[in-house]
User: Which sequence fits this backbone?
């Protein structure tokens, strides 16, 4: 099985550092990074901020390790890290995820 891991970061530099680390450690096959505007509640106030989204593709058995690794690098007190199941996909792409990620511990 496969997962998308959705993460927000404060800026492109942080997002790139997280993505590079996860790809280099073969915890994820790839990452997409793009800018967003976020509106959210924090400490009883509505906040409006520019952030960056990282969309990561990986295997289900690596998600716990991916989350732990991101938490160890992330600058946010409460980072958004969500795992979303991939129900279907291109067989060639899913095979590429398998080939691009490490064996699980």
Assistant:
């Amino acid at each position: 099985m496969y997962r998308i891991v959705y993460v927000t970061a404060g800026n492109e530099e942080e997002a790139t550092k997280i993505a590079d680390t996860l790809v280099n450690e073969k915890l994820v096959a790839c990452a997409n990074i793009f800018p967003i505007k976020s509106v959210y509640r924090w400490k009883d106030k509505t906040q409006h901020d520019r952030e960056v989204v990282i969309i990561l593709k990986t295997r289900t058995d690596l998600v716990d390790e991916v989350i732990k690794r991101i938490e160890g690098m992330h600058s946010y007190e409460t980072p958004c890290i969500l795992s979303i199941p991939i129900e279907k996909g291109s067989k060639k792409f899913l095979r590429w995820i398998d080939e691009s990620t490490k064996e699980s511990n």
Q: What stands out?
A: Helices lie at 12-24, 63-73, 91-100. The mean pLDDT is 97. The chain has one domain: 2-100.
